[in-house]
Specification:
This protein is α/β, with parallel strands linked by helices and about 250 residues long. It is about 25% helix and about 25% strand. Strand 7, helix 6 and strand 8 form a beta-alpha-beta unit. The structure holds 1-O-pyrophosphono-5-O-phosphono-alpha-D-ribofuranose and adenine. It is found in: Cytoplasm. Its main location: cytoplasm. InterPro entries: Ade_phspho_trans, PRTase-like, PRTase_dom, UPRTase/APRTase.
């Protein structure tokens, strides 16, 4: 049902000897990053903009190259937000215009490949808060509407509510009652699937509103938590991560 990422999980290595609990650790990058704001010529999307696209490069090759660049940019912070959690920081992607563009291109290619047979989604549903970083842009590229799932108390008007457990604690999600119309095809997107509690709660809200879930799309997956087992529609993860619980 799902399409596992084809990149190996990395192990985290401290970059320096500072002992702060929240010092980032970063995998050994295999690719040199361009400075922030400078387009990375290895990203086909930028090459295309400059008229340099390799005409014979397939979508699969482009996706594989984008994934390598994206993966190399991620950082990990041990013991955040609490002891025992190795926090995966996706924000470096958004701090670099070429990586940001590369993420959207990679997701567009992946969604078309993995979910294209089911047609175009009517709605992309993004989860509060990191699903908002790329959900609206992806929706635009796919020609779909964007609808947020928010933490409780943030949305006006009649709402549906679902309580859920996540890797660190419990919370409540809400959607506006008219945000998804009966029968609309919905793609649920978020940065990370850990225990799967957040995504499952979002899925339950979409179904309460009458939507049909085409699938779930994540940038990263903490494989060892088996979160995808909580989801009853196809799951696609762009980049693999943390196959086993890491001692920090
Ligand atoms: O699979 P799960 O165990 O449910 O965990 C995954 C969720 O946890 C994080 O969000 P968080 O609630 O920390 O909120 P934030 O996006 O506002 O930081 C992440 O962005 C996912 O939404
Ligand atoms: N380990 C983790 N890193 C970043 N976000 C998360 N959400 C749940 N678990 C997480």
């Amino acid at each position: 049902m799902s399409a596992p990422s084809d990149l190996p999980a990395h192990s985290a290595h401290p970059l320096n000897t500072t002992t702060s609990a929240h010092t980032p650790v970063k995998p050994d990058a295999t690719t040199a990053h361009p400075p922030p704001g400078k387009p990375d010529p290895t990203l086909e999307s930028n090459a295309t903009q400059r008229g340099l696209a390799a005409p014979h490069a397939s979508a699969a090759a482009e996706l594989a190259r984008l994934k390598i660049n994206l993966k190399a940019s991620l950082r990990q912070f041990p013991d955040f937000p609490e002891p025992g959690i190795l926090f995966e920081d996706i924000l470096p992607i958004f701090a670099d215009a070429a990586l940001h563009e590369g993420l959207l291109r990679a997701l567009e290619l992946a969604v078309t490949k993995e979910f294209g047979a089911a047609g175009k989604p009517d709605v992309v549903v993004g989860l509060d808060a990191r699903g908002f970083l790329f959900g609206p842009s992806l929706a635009l590229r796919l020609g779909a509407a964007f609808v947020p799932v928010r933490k409780r108390g943030k949305l006006p008007g009649p709402c549906e509510t679902a309580e859920y457990m996540k890797e660190y604690g419990s919370d409540f999600f809400q959607m506006q009652g008219d945000a998804v119309k009966k029968g609309q095809k919905v793609l649920v997107v978020d940065d990370i699937i850990a225990t799967g509690g957040s995504a499952a709660a979002a899925g339950s809200l979409v179904k309460k509103l009458g939507g049909t879930i085409m699938g779930y799309v994540f940038i990263l997956e903490l494989d060892f938590l088996k979160g995808r087992d909580k989801l009853d529609a196809p799951v696609y993860t762009l980049l693999a991560s943390q196959e086993e619980k890491t001692e920090s």
